[in-house]
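Sample entry (79 residues):
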Amino acid sequence: MDHLVWLSSLGALLALDNALFGQFMLSQPLVVGSLFGGILGDWSMGFLVGALVQMLWLGVIAVGAYIPPDYTIAGGITA
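Predicted structure, serialized as tokens:
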């Protein structure tokens, strides 16, 4: 249960990077997957899953009024 609190807090903090605060590219699935994997005890699996989700989202670009789905959540859930 303790991991769930840490993961949800970290996910919410990293989701702010997507549009609201800074945009330091920390909300990318590669970073989120690695951090979540590290909290859960397996950095390498988190990195590999994050890289897979990152490749799925490479072509998504926010142009005009189009708002793409949140890939931070996708990276965190898959890890």
